[in-house]
């Protein structure tokens, strides 16, 4: 009898322990699911901010350029309108990619777009790139930095020139975007605390990098990103973005 009671107690204890473990497992799974949803919402909100902020800024700038050009140079005005159509179509593609979670930035693509957006805003773009190849994650992050920084230059800086410099070494890569404008990089309440730059700061920190932003010593505004490079072979000439100056690494 005593032995049977002991066995029954052991079985009961095991069942209770198993039930508690199941409850803890369910709670852990629910917490993981909640965090995954929060992370996905954060990713999507960041991507949407980066995509739409840049696209709408370019559309506004090119629309203003088309309006100015129309009375005296219809062909140039129509070229600006054609660019607006292209920007809109590309934005639709990127938004679909953001929704499905497959959106990745491209440094080369963003450098080309930066030149176009700055030129349309009557800001002279000066782009220099040198050094080793970059890991895909690094390329993507730097592409986002270029997009956000150039968007802020176009929208807020009143600059006449913007320098974009990418310097990649074997282990680290540094990107700087400097304008000669008013020293404001993110609009009212901007600076390094602007929503776009704040989100990028968090992204770069998660990848072992850093991002700083603030007034430049000689006037204007500077955004500096530093990241692991993830490459050790020279970048072939074909990898240079069209219209980009490349010096030896």
UniProtKB/TrEMBL annotation:
Q: Which Gene3D superfamilies match?
A: 1.20.5.1930, Histidine kinase-like ATPase, C-terminal domain
Q: Kindly list any coiled-coil regions of this protein.
A: 15-42
Ranges of Gly residues composition bias in the record: 182-197
**In the UniProt record, which is one GO cellular component term?**
membrane
CDD domains associated with the record: HATPase_UhpB-NarQ-NarX-like (cd16917)
Q: Which molecular-function annotations from GO does this UniProt entry contain?
A: phosphorelay sensor kinase activity; protein dimerization activity
UniProt superkingdom: Bacteria
Give the Histidine kinase/HSP90-like ATPase domain ranges: 140-229
Q: What is this protein called?
A: Sensor histidine kinase
Organism expressing this protein natively:
Streptomyces capoamus
